[in-house]
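Input record (one chain):
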Amino acid sequence: MSAKKLLFLFLAAALLLGGAVVGVAFYFLRPLKAERAALEALARPSLTLREAPYGLELVPKAPKALLAFYPGARVEPLAYAPALAPVAEAGYLVV
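The corresponding structure, as predicted from the sequence alone:
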């Protein structure tokens, strides 16, 4: 094989590998979106949803205690609303 063909194959392989790395990184670094059930869980009259600099707050009418919840990686915090709405309805401020 000539040096030009070898260089071309090397550059093509490097470009293909670089594109694959960028594609995989783009796929894995995007957060997963909340489903419709999460949005419906927040349509309760006894809860108020507030956006804070550190995330979301589920605020009941008369909060009696605080629950600090740390969402998982790559998941939009709103996706946890169906699981946390009953806790907030029980009177706990969920942050």
